[in-house]
Automatic annotation (TrEMBL), chains A, B, C:
SUPFAM superfamilies: Ribokinase-like. This is Hydroxyethylthiazole kinase. Its cofactor is Mg(2+). It comes from Lysinibacillus halotolerans. ATP binds at residues 125, 179. The lineage of its organism: Bacteria, Bacillati, Bacillota, Bacilli, Bacillales.
Length: 281, 281, 281
């Protein structure tokens, strides 16, 4: 039987382990939100490092405790770097987060995301449309052949991505986080629903990308499922609190980083969370 | 005869249409200010997406309502991507904004900006020196052979760019916005002068770049002239208001995004604006 | 004999010269913190411009008063651009700042940093581990063969980098700044120790990178040693003040830019500073 208290307790441990050890999680990520990703990773107690070249990525993969790959803005060198480092991560058993931003746009993006199937990203984080489209690309349950991704936005509901998320988690053996108004996190057998956040998170760029980076930080210290759920929960707590103090998206982003920094293990435990077993499949 | 009220009314409609439909305007833009461009586009109610590769740019050109091309920081792939997507935009009749940052610096920049002449950017936005130098590069009235651009800064006055702006607008059949202490926007037959803004806009990086991105958002919903003037006016309103609340450029940028988010259609109508016909040519 | 008052007086002159002339210092820098670098350069009164391509870099090297090269996130084109522009800077006698971020990671980074030895960067700015590793790479005193850089973080103490810093400064004939809890700046014969700053500077990304950019701004107006020390001092003043007004790293970054903007020549003179002659070598 699923024990909610045990999950909360593990999340609290992850938050404190990260604050206590300042673990490094390297990233290969997009140029739009790269600064926010790094600052969010630092705010929760981690260390950030970003690179583009294959051998530098390999170095970070081996030196860090986890890694985050975000395909938001592909550069030509990514064709070489990304499958190379994903293979290294997979073969060395390092946890890594995949953020399949804008899956369905462009031939290189499609090719890279197909290659990642074999390297089983430990955590997949995306909006509902991205999760559904990635499942479709990988030929898994709940996916659709046609991506409904609109640029970087989702046109599907989070609950509509449930089957795809479970199928992806079962394939990778890791966890999948679907971000939206309420967030789902699953390891294929347990489904967590996390509440909170803010409407301002859609009014700034990078709430999702930086969540992936923070999940990588937690993945250095705990299981993929707990890492993805901890990151999601911290974001929900910090987003909810930041919203109360601001009246625009510029101030929200600043306040949000402050709240990420201030969120405690206890805050995590007190945030609204539902846990259910995936029995319907 | 030019009707100022009609122009204000159209600007108000554009502001509300964007808030109501959340239109996507993709960008190929520089790495320095890419985050601010996206956040400004989101703040006014649009959706942002940035790419580098040719086929991804083509996708955004076709999927979005308009596009923004900013040549601030050229990467090698731009030699392929930019003329390709500009051709797609021109042939499909999609509105697009060109920001000819630092025209005159480097051979690729010069080559790309020359190629764009045939693809007639719907809106050209720049500082006075950039507008004069682009007119010169394209062999139009009011241009000079030698660029007076100093890095990314202007050394010419806005009023000194009037003839060049009109000539560029006549060539493209679209609109030209010249940013400075007061701003000019013209479609070649009407000249609008918009007042407001803040001295802090020169003390942050990206006020101009993000104005181009926001103009692209409005261009999804209205004519090039109204789009350029609406973006310019929103910036003047938000800049003026933000300045009253801050005492440094860091706070200004945050407050400016908040004010972009809060600027209403009515604020647009109430902002100081002069309209005159271009009769002197 | 070393005269502390004379040094303070020169720093005050540099701060005022920059505010009075708005000098341009171009950069080739990393994508993570590129926005902060530009905004920090603007906040102290300089002008910023960033590029990637060789001929554009050459243009900035010649048009600007100084330049900053930061190897944080290498792209393939850097292999061509960086040694080319470093040679131009060296041959034209233009001051330039090298920030050897993450020295020791990857083959291109190592190759580029080795090439820079001959082009004698006027100011080298890094954390303790980077300074020690660069001295090691260049075969100088105080260096180690093995880099202790962890991603972008230092694992060595500032005082432990003293010998390496002096050796680097003696080699280049310029200045070296070692950033940490207290900061060292040396020209090989004088050692300055500057106090202040904030614990939040480690909780945001780019405090170090932007310090390099600001040092380049001051290098347009004064000697390498005074430029490096002025930048370091302004950062210590602004960091200390910003910390008093905030309770998280998001607000800190905003306030820090405001304080950079507000720091006066007098504030520089009043900041805690020790000066000693390098007599022990």
């Amino acid at each position: 039987m699923v024990n909610k208290q045990e999950i909360q307790s593990k999340m609290m441990q992850a938050v404190e382990a990260v604050r206590g050890t300042n673990p490094m999680a390297g990233s290969i990520t997009n140029t739009v939100t790269i600064n926010l990703v790094a600052n969010a990773q630092l705010a929760v107690g981690g260390s950030a490092a970003m690179v583009y070249l294959p051998d530098e990525a390999e170095f970070l993969a081996k030196a860090g405790g986890a890694m985050c790959i975000n395909v938001g803005t592909l550069l030509p060198i990514y064709e070489e770097t990304l499958p190379y480092v994903a293979k290294v991560l997979h073969e060395t058993g390092k946890p890594w987060v995949l953020d399949p931003v804008a899956v369905g746009i462009g031939s290189l993006r499609t090719k890279l995301l197909q290659q990642f199937k074999a390297y089983k990203p430990t955590i997949i984080r995306g909006n509902a449309s991205e999760i559904i489209a990635l499942a479709g690309l990988w030929g898994l349950d709940g996916g659709t052949e046609q991506s409904n991704v609109r640029g970087v936005d989702s046109t599907d509901s989070v609950s509509g991505a449930k089957v795809a998320a479970i199928a992806l988690a079962k394939w990778t053996g890791g966890a999948v986080a679907v971000s939206g108004e309420t967030d789902l996190v699953t390891d294929g057998s347990i489904m967590a629903v996390s509440y909170g956040g803010s409407h301002f998170m859609e009014k700034i760029t990078g709430a999702g990308c930086s969540l992936g980076g923070v999940a990588a930080v937690y993945a250095t210290a705990t299981s993929p499922f707990i890492a993805a759920l901890t990151a999601t929960t911290v974001y929900n707590v910090a987003g909810k609190r930041a919203e109360l103090k601001v009246d625009g998206p510029g101030s929200f982003q600043v306040q949000f980083i402050d709240e990420l920094y201030k969120t405690t293990a206890e805050d995590i435990a007190n945030n609204s969370l539902d846990i259910e077993e995936v029995s319907f499949l």
